[in-house]
Automatic annotation (TrEMBL):
Keywords: FAD, Fatty acid metabolism, Flavoprotein, Lipid metabolism, Oxidoreductase, Peroxisome. FAD binds at T138, G177. One of its GO terms (cellular component) is peroxisome. This is Acyl-coenzyme A oxidase. One of its GO terms (biological process) is lipid homeostasis. The active site is at E431. It comes from Centaurea solstitialis.
């Protein structure tokens, strides 16, 4: 039977080579081929079916996710998949489970903080999954405030042991993924006490990581350990496939050599030593690594929501504004729909490119760290923290908007959007609360501004070198067309970021106690950080356009997306641009007018741009976002796939409805 493509007319409108755009989106022909292979491996295997997931109760759901993870492991071994292939396989299975933390945090923590000897011992075991690990940092009472962690690790010189203890209820480890039910091991963060002395009363050396056995082989906890799951989380299915755990220690002994020893050591005699040439911030290194990964992944999450909303918008017709009777308008042709949808489409591309750049930055910093060059660590920290915060917040808001863009059907689980929202929303909290992370960026920016004159700003903050120009030269835009020039756009974002940073730095200088100033101005500081991070995203998109991009019409389509992203932000944050005096109201309104023109240029390419994401229907798991656009019959069928429709008479009907109908409520 011939398959009907309900979106064919839309696909025919494309003004660029979709196959070439797929390569740009994937990053390279090799990446495209790799992702395509892994996505289809998952899509074509019944073991990875996921549509029934939201109907399962927690225990069934969890067992189901363990089965999938085991099956994935078997595939990795049977097919001899590389670590990279295995990573994409897990990604397309699309279900948070313990291997995410094992591969994503436990192994990187050992790699980054273990001594050579420790790495040699633990990494092969971990990579072969003979042990399964998690990352136990957060406590019930302390999440963002890592320095406040209460778990103690007291050195016992007599027995050459550390004693790990949870002295208070609030010191209970709380949230680590994979901890609750599965992990055999954990990297645990605790305060170090040697010879009765708390290291780090001043906040320098007060917590260190330890790796130790959590379970006995018969799978009951070691003596002195209490472990469990933190409980049901938001959303059906969603993150409930993960065993986020709680953990308490009652004077648990571990050998001294299970302290991760790259940054500092405790000797047999009980002497504490910090490696001179290694900054203590290295113990935060795993977080830098995961924040980078989150940015690399988040564009795919947003692209998924946008793909669903764009396809449905290009199919569903509503009345025109002049006639409420004739259903003639495609939703995507409403200007108001475009102004909500197209900036999200542009954001997905923008986040993809900034994610590629961040990966490059991180790879570079990682190589430097291995060679004990720590000079770029502050920038890597600020960039990973800021971009993690910016992109996850925008993505989660974007998914919610996509849900609304699909009307009532977006609210159905079968649209794929509610579960995507539920599984993504904790990304604004985990790996650092987004506001807390933006305050770290602000600290970095303010410090850079304060040091102008005796320290050269580098990398993402190098615009601060041209402070004088940026503070005094205002925008030169005179026509709408003037706004679609890469260097002009970047300069506008630089001027806004620099002016906001300088104003805040001047306000901070008025406080006698800098920390009090930082606290009182924290809301403004977050805005400074947002401006800095948006500048990074815009400038990396503009830099991408300066590269050689093959394929008919591909570069032109990307240019439109870049300007949509940038001018949408100019419009959204026009208050910043006007208050800093960089733009006049006329220039701001020209930007908005140009944005409307760009929407009309993007419109014919909309479906092709989401097709270029190359998402399988399995990955989308959305009735309204199907590739073939055959929505309505499938929407109807999906309703009958719900077990709730197995019978006309639900449980409780005879008991609770009949008495009302028969007016026999008194018998209840
Ligand atoms: C949308 C869908 C996305 C899909 C993606 C899927 C993939 C992801 C799978 C994983 C899923 C879940 C995993 C979740 C795991 C976790 O959540 S682990 C726990 C994470 N916890 C946190 O992130 C805690 C946040 N808090 C902190 O990072 C720090 O404590 C904080 C930075 C807030 C510390 O603040 P202070 O106490 O003020 O800092 P100090 O300790 O005094 O240090 C200040 C100096 O150190 C520098 N610094 C800070 N952090 C780092 C770092 N990471 N690297 C390098 N340097 C760092 C800081 O700049 C200061 O430097 P200065 O003194 O100014 O020079
Ligand atoms: C799904 C999920 C998975 C997780 N996985 C892990 C894991 O594997 N391992 C692990 O160790 N942890 C994990 N966590 C814990 C996570 O890292 C913490 O939740 C996170 O760091 C935030 O800490 P908190 O929950 O204590 O929030 P809090 O720090 O209590 O923040 C609450 C509010 O206070 C504000 N706030 C806090 N501090 C400041 C400040 N200094 N200035 C201004 N505002 C502030 C925040 O902006 C926020 O609005 C996970 C969490 C979730 C939700």
């Amino acid at each position: 039977m011939e398959l009907v493509d309900h979106l064919r007319d839309e696909r025919n409108k494309a003004q660029f080579d979709v196959e070439a755009m797929k390569v740009v989106w994937a990053g390279s022909p090799q990446e495209l081929q790799l992702c395509d292979r892994m996505a289809n491996l998952v899509a074509n295997h019944p073991a990875f079916e996921k549509l029934k997931r939201p109907m399962l109760v927690r225990k069934e759901l969890f067992k189901n996710s363990l089965r999938k993870a085991a099956y994935a492991r078997k595939l990795v071994i049977d097919l001899g998949l590389s670590e990279e292939e295995a990573k994409w396989l897990r990604f397309y299975i699309d279900e948070p489970t313990y291997p995410d933390l094992h591969w994503g945090m436990f192994i990187p923590a050992i790699e980054g903080q273990g001594s050579e000897e420790q790495k040699e011992k633990w990494l092969p075991l971990s990579r072969n999954m003979q042990i399964i690990g998690c990352y136990a940092q957060t406590e019930m009472g302390h999440g963002s405030n890592v320095q406040g962690l209460e778990t103690t690790a007291t050195f016992d010189a007599q027995q050459d042991h550390f004693i790990i203890h949870s002295p208070t209820l609030t010191s209970t480890k709380w949230w680590p993924g994979g901890l609750g039910k599965v992990s055999t091991h954990a990297v645990v963060y605790a305060r170090l006490i040697v010879n009765g002395e708390f290291h780090g009363v001043h906040g320098w050396y007060n917590y260190y990581s330890f790796s130790f056995f959590l379970y006995l082989e018969d799978h009951s906890p070691l003596p002195g350990i209490t472990v469990g799951d933190v409980g049901l989380k938001f959303g059906n299915g969603a993150y409930n496939t993960m065993d986020n755990g709680l953990l308490r220690f009652h004077h648990v002994r571990i050998p001294r050599n299970q302290m991760l020893m790259r940054v500092s050591q405790v000797s047999r005699e009980g002497k504490y030593m910090q490696c001179d040439d290694v900054p203590r911030q290295l113990i935060y290194g795993t977080m830098v690594s995961v924040r980078q990964t989150i940015v690399a992944m988040v564009s795919r999450t947003l692209s998924r929501a946008v793909c669903i909303a764009t396809r449905y918008s290009a199919l569903r017709r509503q009345h025109s504004s002049s006639s409420l009777v004739v259903p003639c308008f495609l939703m995507i042709d409403y200007q108001s729909q475009q102004s909500r949808l197209f900036p999200l489409l542009a954001s997905a591309y923008a986040f993809k490119f900034v994610g590629e750049w961040l990966k490059w930055l991180y790879t570079d910093v990682k190589q430097r760290l291995e060679a004990n060059d720590f000079s770029t660590l502050p920038e890597a920290h600020a960039s990973t923290a800021g971009l993690k915060s910016l992109t996850t917040s925008a993505t989660v808001d974007g998914i919610e908007e996509c849900m609304k863009l699909c009307g009532g059907d977006g609210y159905l689980v079968s649209s794929g959007l509610p579960e995507l929202f539920a599984v993504s929303v904790p990304a604004c909290t985990y790996e650092g609360d987004n506001t807390v992370l933006m305050l770290q960026v602000a600290r970095f920016v303010v410090k850079t501004v304060s040091e102008v004159g005796y320290k050269e700003p580098l990398g993402t903050s190098s615009y601060i070198r041209r402070l004088n120009t940026l503070l005094h030269n205002n925008c030169l835009v005179q026509t709408g067309e003037d706004w679609v020039k890469g260097d002009r756009i970047v300069e506008a974002f630089e001027a806004r970021a620099a002016r906001m940073a300088v104003t805040c730095t001047q306000h901070l200088a008025k406080f006698q106690d800098p920390e009090q100033g930082f606290s009182e101005l924290s809301a403004d500081l977050v805005e400074v950080a947002v401006a800095h991070c948006q500048l990074i995203v815009v400038s990396k998109f503009v830099e991408k356009l300066a590269q050689d991009i093959p394929g008919k019409g591909v570069k032109e389509a990307l240019e439109v997306l870049c300007y949509v992203y940038a001018l949408f932000l100019v419009h959204k944050h026009q208050g910043d641009f006007l208050v800093t005096g960089y733009l006049t109201p006329k220039q701001a309104s020209l930007a908005n007018r140009q944005l409307r023109i760009l929407y009309s240029r993007l419109r014919p390419n909309a479906i092709a741009l989401v097709d270029a994401f190359n998402h399988t229907d399995h990955y989308l798991s959305s009735v309204v976002g199907r590739y073939d656009g055959n929505v309505y019959p499938n929407l109807y069928q999906a309703a009958f796939n719900d077990p709730f429709n197995d019978s006309h008479v639900p449980d409780g009907y005879h008991q609770y409805i009949h008495p009302i109908l028969n007016q026999t409520l008194a018998k209840l």
